[in-house]
């Protein structure tokens, strides 16, 4: 069985190799800080396996995470200039290769799809080939490796160091943004164990007026929207708002259809995800990856749609749940 | 009540544009300590959180191959290709991508798209290529707008497509939560069905906005003389943005 941890080790190893490249890259004025940041990230990926299996304590990893936060947060990381092709060279290569260059790019999604749809059902004996529940992550990983092989064949590149250097250059350009989604997920779990969710539930149930079902619908949807913006994740907001209002007020008291109430409550939360920097992997990471000056650019592009869909969700729930 | 100070720290931190990693780190430590965790438990919470959320960072594995292809003219070829489709404007192209993203997500293929896999290497060069063909070199403000909307089309398509698929995380979270907390039985299929109306509205609303983007772009070009502050390629834009951050 192919285990998802193997892929986390591979990602960790790639970060470690890139950290080693950064260490010797004299064009980077902050090469030691950069190498330390990405090296810790790579080592953390590999060490995490033992934390997940509970064979090693989580505290050292926590220390490493806080050191990474300080390295990036106080500006000890930088970027070098990785030698690459000029725009003129790229145009020349593109006209020679033509649309063959798309083959490796499309390999990633095609392999991911094949893994998620077909390989998912394969078994060796009784063991599934891909670890159960991780088929999409594994599909992406397998897709990336196959695409790299196909890509090197298509562009006739023999040195593996070339794609690694190019990938490192993209990593350095993204910088700390790459770690932010993971750290926000961590913050969400700290909020949860510290009882932040419970407090919000207490407050919302206090301000809610009795017996006005449509007011309760608006409070539930708006609550999902706002709480998702704070937590950056509709999944974290859902149990809190549903336990506070959705279930007791809308389903039990109001006699609403639970499937309608809960489905649209969750979708109201997704509207919040579109509006918040806390959903870093959807909003901040793309801004960094696309080289935007305004890190809130994607959020601004999404705001009007999110607002309109919040109203739509409230409307559908009011019309069909009761 | 006092644990809510951690939430306040996050809001203030983001509002005053401090470094997000620091904001999250400080808020995490503060919330944990205010919530009566010992310093050891706070460290363990950071470690466990990092370990269990590695999946969100795995897209980094695609960067070497995307980098290799960009080095060999992937974006340039994407622009050339889109130039052959005369009627495909930026807005229409993004509507097409939005629809594809929704449909593929709705059948469970959520990892087909994404900022690293499709938006940076393919969607942005094609969307920009379409605008360049009809208007010439893009002013930087316009380029930012097109890139922001490319990322937005990917997100909207993903969020309001995937919930129509019954094996997706959010549907299973809903049914799992209700079934264990309230000892009820809700069918995933029933929940997924009620995600469809919102999915249709999402396509209509966001699609209409993307089509309107074409008009906004034309107006921008009329206002700013063509080529003012033009940035030729993604690589240089990434560099300048990163330099900006270092200052």
UniProtKB/TrEMBL annotation, chain A:
Keywords: Membrane, Transmembrane, Transmembrane helix
Transmembrane domains' residue ranges: 6-24, 31-49, 61-80, 101-124, 136-155, 176-193, 213-238, 259-282, 302-321
Any Pfam family hit: DUF979
Protein name (database record): Permease
Organism field: Embleya scabrispora
From TrEMBL, chain B:
Membrane-spanning segments: 42-69, 156-179, 191-211
Xref: InterPro entries: DUF969 (IPR010374)
Keywords linked to the UniProt accession: Membrane, Transmembrane, Transmembrane helix
Highest taxon of source: Bacteria
Protein name: DUF969 domain-containing protein
Lineage per the UniProt record: Bacteria, Bacillati, Actinomycetota, Actinomycetes, Kitasatosporales
